[in-house]
């Protein structure tokens, strides 16, 4: 073991003991008696725990029965976990765990930080799939059911698990809170699966080398900082340009996850004894695909993901066989926001019916696309089908290159708009701009340079298709 790692671990071990005691608020003791239901196709065996909101607590190859999922507390498992405001979220008369007050409104499928499990209200096993519906708990609060329902449909296909997730929200708070990073889903593996790998470069689907995102020295330093500060988490954010990531053991075998259309992931390892640990131990691997979305008071929020068991090569090969290749993006706002979000702006809320209807009364309103991936050479002109109601004569479009962490003033064009409130199709030529080249990652539109009361925009589509 390198000397630097020995030195770091000698400092971190005393701190981590206290850190784990603080963070693992739902230790394995006093968890509800398991009520397991299984599905087995001869290759994989998956189990959900009906005493913990129907979260996935078991996944193994049928022949080995080695469970790959950590379920030491109600915050692990493979489960739905979503976020909205306010921050903090403390209803009258409710007790909050101070460590988690920064999470805001956070329904969690398995239960809360005070060891209260979520309640399953429907379950069905038809021999081919599992269907679970539950009322989740608000994680930071003591015994506070969320005003929403979670539903998962789980199907086995060979060495893969296909999961469709659906959240139906029925909050009384009608305020539209800013977009938050969602866990789609939260996935915790046993500590033996500790090596976080993904492809993070700008040449996806070309068999380019993958990255190991948490080498031991980096992992140990992050855990040292995490333990000292007693806040945040040790996870690393990264761009997954093939929309997958995996946690594997020292031999390269483990569990991968593919979430179509999601380029923002986070992951890592919790604990110091990487390479060790089972389903009921504190150390665990973690991955979350992170769509960034507005969660309305009445939204129906859906996504899907696939769990893939095998070697890194097998996981990547499955994705190559089944995943669509990235290309110039096209967003049509027929039924939802397509993961677009706002800064200093808001829309008319859910449901979305054919367009985004956005108020531009803020001082610096902006519309921001989800992270994505495309090559500038294949996307010369951006088309926006929109109706602007404003006295402003121009709007601005920014783009963010794949290697840029923020939007740059150099990556910007100003285009004329018609503020008559009628729909027009705007063609914005980007080809030829010296800053528009190579791999691209995101767009931002600023329709108004200074806020105007009563100004708005309705957008039916944005994209590079004619």
Secondary-structure blueprint of this entry?
Elements: H1 3-23, E1 36-40, E2 44-49, E3 55-61, E4 78-81, E5 107-108, E6 119-125, E7 129-135, E8 137-138, E9 148-157, E10 160-169, E11 180-181, E12 183-190, E13 195-198, E14 211-212, H2 216-229, E15 236-239, E16 244-248, E17 253-258, E18 264-270, E19 284-289, E20 292-293, E21 300-311, H3 312-322, E22 330-332, E23 341-343, E24 346-347, E25 356-359, E26 366-368, E27 374-375, E28 381-389, E29 394-401, E30 412-416, E31 420-429, E32 439-446, E33 456-463
Antiparallel strand pairs: 1-2, 2-3, 4-12, 5-8, 6-7, 7-9, 9-10, 10-21, 11-20, 12-19, 13-14, 13-16, 15-18, 16-17, 17-21, 18-19, 22-33, 23-26, 24-25, 25-33, 26-32, 27-32, 28-31, 28-33, 29-30, 29-32
Helix pairs in contact: 1-2
Task: State mean pLDDT (0 to 100 scale).
Answer: 91
CATH fold annotation of the largest domain: Beta-galactosidase, Chain A, domain 5
Given this structure, which CATH class of the largest domain is correct?
Mainly Beta
Distance N to C terminus: 57 Å
Number of strands: 33
Helix fraction, binned, reads under 10%
Low-pLDDT windows of residues:
1-26
**Estimated structural class:** mainly beta
The CATH level-2 architecture of the largest domain is identified as Distorted Sandwich
Radius of gyration: 23 Å
Task: Give the DSSP E fraction (strand runs of 2 or more residues).
Answer: 35-45%
Largest sheet: 9 strands, antiparallel
Helix tally?
3
Q: Looking at the structure, what is the overall shape?
A: globular
Task: List the strand order in the largest sheet.
Answer: 6-7-9-10-21-17-16-13-14
Q: How many individual domains? A: 2
């Amino acid at each position: 073991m390198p000397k630097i790692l020995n030195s770091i671990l000698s400092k971190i071990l005393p701190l981590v003991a206290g850190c784990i005691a603080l963070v693992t608020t739902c230790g394995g003791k006093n968890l509800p008696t398991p009520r397991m239901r299984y599905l087995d196709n001869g290759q994989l065996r998956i189990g959900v725990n009906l005493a913990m909101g129907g979260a996935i607590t078991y996944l193994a190859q049928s022949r080995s029965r080695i469970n790959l999922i950590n379920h030491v507390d109600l915050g692990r498992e493979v489960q739905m976990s979503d976020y909205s405001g306010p921050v903090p979220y403390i209803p009258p008369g409710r007790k909050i765990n101070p460590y988690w007050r920064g999470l805001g409104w956070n329904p969690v499928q398995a239960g809360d930080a005070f060891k209260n499990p979520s309640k399953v209200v429907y379950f069905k096993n038809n021999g081919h799939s599992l269907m679970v519906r539950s009322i989740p708990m608000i994680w930071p609060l003591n015994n506070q059911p969320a005003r929403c329902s979670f539903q998962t449909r789980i199907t086995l296909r060979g060495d893969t698990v296909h999961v469709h997730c659906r959240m139906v929200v029925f909050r009384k708070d009608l305020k539209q809170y800013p977009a938050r990073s969602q866990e789609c889903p939260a996935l915790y593996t046993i500590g033996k699966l500790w090596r976080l790998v993904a492809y993070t470069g700008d040449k996806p689907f070309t068999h380019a080398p993958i990255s190991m995102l948490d080498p031991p020295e980096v992992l140990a330093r992050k855990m040292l900082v995490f333990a000292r500060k007693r806040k945040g988490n040790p996870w690393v954010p990264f761009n997954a340009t093939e929309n997958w990531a995996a946690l594997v053991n020292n031999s390269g075998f483990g569990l991968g996850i593919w979430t179509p259309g999601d380029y923002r992931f986070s992951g890592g390892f919790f604990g110091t004894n990487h390479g060790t640990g089972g389903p009921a131990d504190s150390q665990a691997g973690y991955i979350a695909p992170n769509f960034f979305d507005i969660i309305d008071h009445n939204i129906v929020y859906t996504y899907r993901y696939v769990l893939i068991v095998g070697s890194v090569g097998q996981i990547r090969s499955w994705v190559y066989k089944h995943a669509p290749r990235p290309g110039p993006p096209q967003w049509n706002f027929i039924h939802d926001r397509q993961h677009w979000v706002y800064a200093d702006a808001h829309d008319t809320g859910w449901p979305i019916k054919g367009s985004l209807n956005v108020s531009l009364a803020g001082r610096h309103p902006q519309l921001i696309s989800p992270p994505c991936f495309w090559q500038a050479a294949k996307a010369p002109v951006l088309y926006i089908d929109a109706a602007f109601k404003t006295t402003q004569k121009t709007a601005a479009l920014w783009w963010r290159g794949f290697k840029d962490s923020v939007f740059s003033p150099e990556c910007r064009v100003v285009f004329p708009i018609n503020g008559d409130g009628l729909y027009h199709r705007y063609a914005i030529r980007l080809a030829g701009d010296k800053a528009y080249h190579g791999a691209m990652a995101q767009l931002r539109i600023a329709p108004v340079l200074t806020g105007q009361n009563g100004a708005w925009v309705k957008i039916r589509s944005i994209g590079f298709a004619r």
